[in-house]
């Protein structure tokens, strides 16, 4: 984590410097509340790292990095409302604490504040960055809807899943890197390469997240063991098992995934099918494939190899979490 300290400190100082002092307080207090939660703040860090990669001035990237963090938190507020989630990062969610209406409104306002923080960019750069940001916002919403649709679909394919996580997770990481690169003056080709690096890194990260739900060290991961199985989520583990299962195993999977229950027999039954269909090794192979694609795009970028080391460390940090 030490390689991230510089960037995390810059982002934290910027969040504190740009605390919302506007009125009415009822609108802005919830916004300050969620921004104070911290977290890893990986997306704004990616903006700064990409800016550094191409030798840009970090001060030029700070407000756009905050814009990305505002947008991310806007999505979290609305996701929590959709999921009726009581907690976020072990703290009460905004709609739980302040009410549903304020939750919606404060989330909306964070989005508009995000747009405001691009205004200092010179006109040509502003137009490029705003197009990326707006297109990404649309794609994230589409990804969220696909995720909701999957809950009631019985024929989700592997490609459907990859598309969903690309939209919902990979696209914002990719856009963060691309925006940072453009602010530093990177060529369009290099900015496109770092976008694809971020996209495939994001895909690999989400697949690893699904993997750790079942196979991770739960104390380190900080989640309930097999929570996705309890919730009948059609993750890559489920889809891989379904694709490789025989008729009897497929029937058993279908049976368990019609029941939303904490019954340990369900977990045992599903995990048994995962073992029989070699889900663990197949999913880790997929993580490796997307991480390799990400690194191929990073290698294409026309900067000294030394400059790329922080991004290589970032990829290792994101993908080699506790197992």
State the gist of this model.
The chain is built from 16 helices and two strands. It has 323 residues and is mainly α. The protein is globular, with a radius of gyration of 20 Å.
Give the number of helices: 16
- Approximately what portion of the residues adopt beta-strand conformation? under 5%
Strand order of the largest sheet: 1-2
Poorly predicted residue ranges = none
Radius of gyration: 20 Å
Could you say which structural class the secondary elements and strand pairing correspond to? Answer: mainly alpha
Terminal CA distance: 17 Å
Q: Which series of helices and strands comes N to C?
A: HHHHEEHHHHHHHHHHHH
Largest sheet: 2 strands, antiparallel
Q: Using DSSP, what is the number of strands?
A: 2
- Helical proportion, percent range: over 70%
C-alpha geometry: globular
Write down the overall mean pLDDT: 94
